[in-house]
Amino acid sequence: MPGFAAATVRMRTPEDAVALPVQSSVDLRAWAAEAAARRAGPDDDEPELLAALAAELREAAADSRGRGPVTALSYVPEPRLGELARIELSALVADDTYPAVTVDLLRRYLAAPTPVSYRPPEAELVALPAGPAVRVRHAYVQDVGRDGLGTVTETCAYGIRADPAWGLVLCTSWRALARTDLLCALTDELARTVRVTP
To answer: Under 8 Å CB-to-CB from 74, ≥6 apart: which residues?
Structure first.
């Protein structure tokens, strides 16, 4: 298989997701206004709703763009509630420090506990059409205030060994803890749609 190229990687986009322009240099303000209007549809054309959704999509695109993923999606099943989850597919390319991408390397990368881990990560090995993989669930505490309380962010991620020279990381993150099962199932479904073409 050839070296990594973003054009060789495909993943299905969920119906309620908005593709974020992370690989192109568009005007985010104009893009977000159009994307919010498309996602809200003709029945939800209230100016306040559109402005709030546009601002959220603009921030999501800028945030994801900073990490440089192959693809990034804002999952917005209910436009009035804004972004429910962020979905990113990124590449990890072998280098001098790690000359080969292995499932074990991906497991160590994704399942390493951090100082902000809310609970220990859970990892399991799986087989996917794009290659052998590891599935990792993790939860973090972020934005801790002076009172010591913070916001729990959960993730469901797949590290996929697509090639010995590079791998893929599919990561869904969210803060709506009541939707954890739904969002893990969505991530599982998306992981099975990742394809790499030579």
So the answer is: 17, 18, 20, 56, 57, 60, 61, 83, 86, 87
- Of the CA atoms within 13 Å of residue 177, those in its CB half-sphere come to 8
Listed in sequence order, the residues at least 6 apart from 191 whose beta carbon sits closer than 8 Å to its beta carbon are: 126, 128, 133, 135, 158, 160, 170
Count CA within 13 A, CB hemisphere, residue 105. Answer: 20
Q: Which of 154, 192, 179, 194 is nearest to 77 (CA)?
A: 179
Q: 45's torsion region: left (phi>0), alpha (psi -120 to 50) or beta?
A: alpha
Residues in the chain: 198
| Number of Cα atoms under 13 Å in the Cβ half of residue 128 | 31
pTM above 0.90, yes or no: yes
Angle at 93 (CA atoms; ends 91, 97), nearest 5 degrees = 140
- Please say whether the beta carbons of 8 and 197 come within 8 A: yes
Helix (H, G, I), strand (E, B) or coil at 107: helix
In angstroms, what CA-CA distances link 157 with 3, 134, 191? 23, 8, 9
pLDDT tens per residue, range 33-85: 999 999 998 777 788 999 999 999 999 999 999 999 999 999 999 999 999 99
